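A student in our group prepared the protein record below, which I am reviewing. This is what I was given:
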Amino acid sequence: MKVLIFFVILLSMVGTQTTFCNALGEKPIEDSRELQLQDMLVLLLLPQMREKLAGVYSGVLSAPGSPDIYPYFVDVTHTERVNGFRGFDFLITLDARPTVGPHIPIGEDVFTYRISAAGVELKNFEHLRGPNKDDFPKYYQDLLK
């Protein structure tokens, strides 16, 4: 009986440690209302993000078209309600990893949008890194200038 109680306690401790680890920044492993709302917001912002990336990467890509960005390569890193509780003025920061061809990553970019009753406005854009030709797959280097 004591052994059974020991295993029950041990299993409950392991279960809470896993949940705690997920709260520390790992990717979510199950759906939630917050994650659904974040994903919907990312989907709505994708056209504007693609437009910005087309200009940023036009100098390094030789292939027709522009880099693509998929919602599963975009992470919401920060959200903020600018004017207090129940104010409808928000800042959202997104970390994006655009791709070309068969999902080859070509860089990392950070977007900060202001979302309010006036609409959506890109407040800040930071190009963290672009493609490194040496790290690019051999058979796809022709996509780069």
